[in-house]
Amino acid sequence: MSFFQMTSPVAARRMFLGRSGLVLSGAAVALLAGQDALAAKTGGATGNDVQILNTALAAELEAIAAYQAGAESKLLEKPVLDLAVTFQGHHKEHAELLAKTVAKLGGKAVSAKASYGFPLESLKSQADVLRFAAKLEQGAVSAYLGAVPLFGNRDLSKAAASILGDEAMHWAVLRQALGEAPVPSAFMS
Amino acid sequence: MNLGRWLLAAGALAAGAQALAAPDAVRGEQVYARCLACHALAVDRVGPRHCGLFGRLAGSVPGFSYSQAMKKSKIIWNDKTLDRFLAKPLAVVPGTAMTYDGVPDPKDRADLIAYLRQADGTPACSAASRR
Q1: DSSP code of residue A126
Q2: A41 part of a folded domain
Q3: Which CATH number does the domain housing residue A77 bear?
Q4: Where are the domains of chain B?
Q5: Nearest Cβ partner for B100 among A63, A136, A143
Q6: Is B101 close to A117, i.e. CB distance below 8 A?
Q7: pLDDT number for residue B12
Q8: B24-130 belongs to which CATH class?
């Protein structure tokens, strides 16, 4: 049974979390601990690394705002709304980790914009919101994929790959909810 | 096969290969999905809008916060400069905020550029240019 078909949102969320094995908060703590060590020594981090992290942070902040807009649209039914909030929570964790890492590397973390130009007028149904979110998540996977090889410090590549994995799961779940093949290909680009 | 027929066949093959290699804007829209974490056609996001891109000076969308590197690049966006930049953004503009390893496949880049050019003529972009 899909968690989207479950009557209880709590059960749906429990099933989702249980099946997907999401332990991001634990992983994030471990990664952050690694970056403490990284800050103490140079660790191979470069000025580029701070820029890469800040670009990722800006996208995460926008994703948080996008899920907020989706949640406030009143277009999402309860189980889907709970999932959207869960996914938004992951993006908040990503953003928090990225901002802390930028600071530890001596950079200035970017802030969220006061407003984003989301195409809210074109969102008329739950499917529209899910499709909008799915496109952002797909783009995020590609963006992290394009960032992973650029880091001077391989620990940061690992952290970015961890986030990439989470966002790929979001994308797959959103596609499944839309009735599309959840994993459309063997490779991402 | 006589020479005339051979030339005819060779010409047909060459035309077929050219048709296969022609940029495909529909496929380019699929490639554009890679950009959607940061870009949109009509609005500025983490990256600047793409409407009005062709012929635009890099770093010149009013109100968008560019890196110094992009503002100083003096690039005019066209098929050729986009192809170079998209292949390896940080190599072409070191210090750009577009911290993305690039689109390595030339066909993907050609299709993407074809899509961006086509999108520039759509009502979505016309409306954006009036704002």
Answers
A1: H
A2: no
A3: 1.20.1260.10
A4: 24-130
A5: A143
A6: no
A7: 63
A8: mainly alpha
